[in-house]
Amino acid sequence: xxTAFLFPGQGAQVVxxxxxxxxxxxxxxxxxxxxxDILGFDLKTICFQGPAGRLNSTTMSQPAIFVTSAALLEVxxxxxxxxxxxxDVTAGLSMGEYTALYAAGAVSFEDGLTLVxxxxxxxxxxxxxxxxxxxxxxxxDDEKVRQLCEEARQGELLEAVNFNCPGQIVVSGSLGAxxxxxxxxxxxxxxxxxxxxxxxxxxxxxxxxxxxxxxxALQQAGIAQPAAAKTIANITxxxxxxxxxxxxxxxxxxxxxxxxQKCMERLLADGVQEFYEIGPGRVLTGLMKRIxxxxxxxxxxxxxxxxAVVGE
Length: 312
Hints:
By secondary structure, this protein is of the alpha/beta class. The protein has helices at residues 19-24, 26-39, 43-49, 52-55, 58-78, 96-103, 109-129, 142-153, 175-184, 208-220, 243-253, 260-269, 283-291, 303-310, and strands spanning 2-7, 89-92, 132-138, 158-165, 168-174, 192-195, 230-231, 272-278, 297-300.
């Protein structure tokens, strides 16, 4: 039976995440302390105590989710009952792909955290320089979203960028076009349109400057041949084969659509039966219910769910 570890992306953060885990498990506490040393600021306190405004910023939420997810993973790796629980495949939604590559042994904790911090900073800078937004459209298929974007665009940038599950597609682009997309959603039959709490038009050409910065950082990082597990790429639904592919995939991810549904369908087709979502929140668990009702995902997001798996 094949096993997949899934890791959440930006938006999963919540004040207090990791606090109960670090209190109960020294291995988790040590990882938060290590993160503080690497970053040179107190990320641990921001995760545990907030304030929410600081934690939710692009520059802070990305390293915070990476470290919290890694801390949960560390407890799984070091607890006797789950020490032999190893993934055949890893996957992460957008920023979560970095955690997936860390879990697969392709990047070290230090390099992964440093890259995620750099990514957050570059995306925030690109967002500050461009006026962009993102809107989640519920209840529309690909073709309806394409038609909606054509009408709402009016010469501005607007693209479908997150294909998360059936009936949930996120569009991204200029502020004006996103506003028009929201207003037109009902006309095309959407159940609802939700403006996302993000800094800008992620996964579009508005992030080109961030992608340039990130590629340089990735080339300087020690990305190894994924050894412990295969990692599936968000932008293709194919498995990474080489470090060069990882660098290219993570760079292009900033300006390209995220094909999460396609990735999960590929894992299911390849015989993955056991899924674990490791990290704050239940977003990926919820998406899988919409992709494949029969498939169960074991969610490991807090102390109670962690103890249920490690048996402590």
